[in-house]
Amino acid sequence: MNRVEELVGSMTWDEKLAQMQVVFRPDPAELERWVRAGTGAIFWPRSAAAVNAQQRVAVEQTRLGIPLLVGLDVIHGHRTIAPTPLALAASFDPDTVQETARLAAAEAASGGVNWTFSPMVDVSRDPRWGRVVEGFGEDPYLAGVMGAAMIRGYQGGDLREPGRIAAAVKHFVGYGHAEGGRDYNTADMSEHRLRNVYLEPFRVAAAAGAASVMAAFNTIGGKPMHAHRRLLTGVLKDEWGWRGVLVGDADGVGNLVPHGVAADLLDAVQQSVRAGLDVEMGGSLTDADGRALLAPGTLPAERVDDAVRRILTLKDRLGLFDRPYVPEGEEITEAASLARAQVRAAAARSTVLLKNDGTLPVTPRGRILLTGPYATSADHLGAWTQSFAAPAGSVAGELISRYPRTEFTVEAGVGFYDDDPADLAAVAAAAERHDLVLVFAGEPSDLSGEAASRSDLQLPGRQEELIRTVAATGVPFAVVLVNGRPLVTAGWIEAAPAVLEAWHLGTEAPAAIVDVLTGAAEPAGRLPMSFPRSAGQVPVYYAHENTGRPATTGGTMRSEAVDIGLVGPDNVTEKYTSKYLDLELGPQFEFGHGSGYTTFRYANARLSAHGLRLDAIEAGERAIMNIDVTNTGGRDGDEVVQLYLRDLVSSVAQPVRRLVGFTRRHISAGETITVGFELGMEQLGFWDAEENPARFVVEPGMFGLYPGGSLRATCELTFEIL
Length: 722
Ligand code: BGC
Fold this sequence. Notes:
The chain is α/β, with parallel strands linked by helices. The longest helix has 17 residues, at 94-110.
């Protein structure tokens, strides 16, 4: 019998239930009491030495000697902070995501963390929701690819390798669909939407070997996810055959009481464990002395054994039974220079050039005015970083130290929230005396993240007025945005010659922003989430269904160039079509948008076959689409080559476009490369949820293909399934 089975066979009821909880007990003496009582998992007690002290109690002073899972929200870095996940998604580069996760894992593991509550793969289409910053944006395919890359970065090929930690993919499922974008709110949806959008990145993450999954706070169909047996056990564990540990979110089990589906905490625990939860986050299964709060018989013994088996198997996979302690002398407590260089490169790769008339890149010469609250603010780390994270400096500090011969003036003009109107006049006066103005505007980190939803998506305070004030002077300027969510830019975007989206880029944000502003690095990221024209238009996302009355096509006529809802043809004046009377069509900046310092041309799109038989596709055959991409500008640069697809006639309404492939490639000036994409079952199919939720199908018919550098790609090919 193996170690896990032997242990399960010898454990008492109390010992089993104690394993099934992770406790938040920051006070060391209190924590030790829980560990001595056999609790299975703890939150990181802040150092390798403190972890070893608790592991010693667990391993040497409990009857069974089972080591601890030590969890922490390592979301985008531990000491050295990388860009937020939303920013990393903008890199459209899975290698960058994997590499920053590997770095975070190495730093966290050196301190004894062996479990992170990341990645968040919740598809998020409502920028009012503050947690959009923690995920990979609006597209299920992008979220799946990036989530899998992050899992590879944390877990590697073998969790026993030093520097590896277990991932927890969260929040299962639908959390990003919160009504009104208000955190923790109800998220109801059809099976069609659930399968094709919200479950999809979790399916990919489970297949990528995610060691654990975290349940979500929301309800679906009135059932809180912590008690949702059909999805937790039925889909995740049974249908997908996933063997990992299913953990609850913080007090998510207890929250079943205010949800109104459980009478009290013990009722809530019973419902959750029966639904398939393996670990409760909070500590409600035993008391501090390890006595089970539920009597044997109140929970199915087999379900409890299954949960314990999963937990012990993860501990075994992590090598904790053989190597429970971490070398204290090797704990990484500071951001090393190599780590800084890595997150700096990742940060530059995550920036998105929203618009540019040639103002950027700038040559840092002459007199430059730096204005806006983010000129001097060091608040670049973004949501979900801990107090011990390596801080960032300010962009003004970085510019001044890097270019000592340039004359910089700093005049903030406005704060994030409060300001003095006289300061705007001072900025206008100062601008006249300078050759260039750089405006650093945005949202402080605490305006996004958990419990940080906003109803207004404009720049807070009087920052828009600041931008308009600068524009009115006629002095050349560029705007750099530092923020955690897509913003509404309507009040100033037309007046700005150049706008760089810099997100919250982490410890090396200022260096990376300066690299990009000066052209030492290329801004080649693309938006992972659409920027709305107005909060009243939310949710606005590219992969929408066409409706029976699309404003873009004037009814049933199909015109591919305008189908995506971005380009308004003459017939948008048609009254009985789907639109707002007071708003232009489409978002301000759509998913996949972003320019750069060079230009690219696409040509010669071709298919290895113009069609395939359905049985061949089902048997795994695939066609290849190739396209040539030429860097037509004078500089080397990166291009994000994207392939969108549309199922032209299907049994259910399909998105007007959906991303089915992308690759970020470095192309030298004048060079042409050929990029290939596969077309198989995965790209052409969908979950036929209304008929049979677990059926993934490809239907015969025509498919439109749109390869290019953005969603506006017009270079179309068709492909037929016969
Ligand atoms: C969040 C989770 C997080 C957990 C533990 C919760 O409030 O929703 O994402 O992992 O806290 O810190």
